[in-house]
Amino acid sequence: MSKKVLVLAETREGSLRNVSFEAIAAGKMIADGGEVISVLIGNGITDVVNELVAYGADRVITVEDAKLEQYSSDGFSQALLAVIEQENPEGIVMGHTSLGKDLSPKLASRLNSGLVSDVTAIEADGDSPKFIRPIYSGKAFEKKVIKDGLTFITIRPNNIPALEKEDGRSGDVSSVSVDITDLRTIIKEVVRKATDGVDLSEAKVIVAGGRGVKSEDGFKPLKELADLLGGAVGASRGACDADYCDYSLQIGQTGKVVTPDLYIACGISGAIQHMAGMSNSKVIVAINKDPEANIFKVADYGIVGDLFDVVPLLIEEFKKV
Ligand code: FAD
């Protein structure tokens, strides 16, 4: 049965995040031939609406206000609620990102509706779509079916492929005006940590280091390899706790969840909490001097050896390509 589905787009510094396009693809599966409407909330954001249409949105609704320049729970809730009230959808999809993790339970509880979070795949074969999500820190997966009523769905970034971009596709664009009131928090300034290179959560290649890297300096060859492959550097909590790198690089249950095309784990033992954040990567390469290390259980390619010998060899080889 076809459905009307709202899909929340996410921007960062004026550009759409990839998860916005993946959410449209998820919305299409849920809508089953029904309408998929992208909702874009912010200030001065209309430049990107055509991109949402090109990636499959049938319509785009914008909510613009100076008070929506930065994400706030109160502001974005009011904006999205106004669109929900106007459109009366059956499903609302957003990324399982910091924003989605904050907004979806808040609104689901406010509207007394369902929520399926952290969805990594959707089976849509004509019946009610089945939502697949990891449980027990990724040790198992469960399949959920929604009976009826409004449901919020958050999708894990980098798992549901976006549709092919179709430039020149047409779709209606309209706006909803909302009087944003009673904001309990106002962001006055955003101080960004200087980052060099690729955003870890969207990187296609990640070279991650663990306690085996042994020092801050030990991360230098990993960074060189990541740069060479156009990727980003990540870390285990072991490496962060040991102060070899910043916690913003932590991957795992209490860090970032990543699904790059290639994940190179260097000196990481493969604790369940680390694997919860990376085991869905497409190809995993593990470098560890302990042949019994747990990480080899999820690795597609395992190299038993000292990372300080292996990583320079990889750098040398990739430089030839
Ligand atoms: P270790 O377990 O010490 O492993 C180091 C590895 O390096 C070993 O396998 C060793 O053989 C290898 N090694 C050493 N030297 C070399 C060398 N020269 N060359 C090659 N290999 C070498 N962890 C996370 O990563 N992310 C999380 O989000 C996370 N959340 C957690 C949440 C909770 C509630 C708890 C309790 C724990 C959490 N942890 C998390 C911690 C997790 O349990 C592990 O302690 C941590 O992942 C271990 O990090 P590690 O693999 O770098 O270190």
Structural description of this entry:
With 321 residues, the protein is an alpha/beta fold. The protein has eight helices and 17 strands. It has helices spanning 18-31, 49-54, 73-87, 98-110, 220-228, 237-241, 272-275, 307-320; strands at residues 5-8, 11-12, 15-16, 36-42, 59-64, 91-95, 114-119, 121-123, 130-135, 140-145, 151-155, 172-175, 205-209, 232-235, 262-266, 283-288, 301-304. The strands form four sheets. A seven-stranded parallel β-sheet has the order 7-11-6-1-4-5-12, with helices on both faces. A hairpin with a 2-residue loop joins strand 2 and strand 3. The chain is globular, with a radius of gyration of 21 Å. The model has no long low-confidence stretch (mean pLDDT 93). Bound molecules: flavin-adenine dinucleotide. Flavin-adenine dinucleotide binds at residues 210-212, 236-239, 250, 252-255, 267-269, 271, 273-274, 277, 287-290, 293, 306-308.
Mind sketching the topology for me?
Blueprint: E1 5-8, E2 11-12, E3 15-16, H1 18-31, E4 36-42, H2 49-54, E5 59-64, H3 73-87, E6 91-95, H4 98-110, E7 114-119, E8 121-123, E9 130-135, E10 140-145, E11 151-155, E12 172-175, E13 205-209, H5 220-228, E14 232-235, H6 237-241, E15 262-266, H7 272-275, E16 283-288, E17 301-304, H8 307-320
Helix pairs in contact: 3-4, 5-8
Bound molecules: flavin-adenine dinucleotide.
Pfam family, one: ETF
Family: Belongs to the ETF alpha-subunit/FixB family.
GO molecular function, one term: electron transfer activity
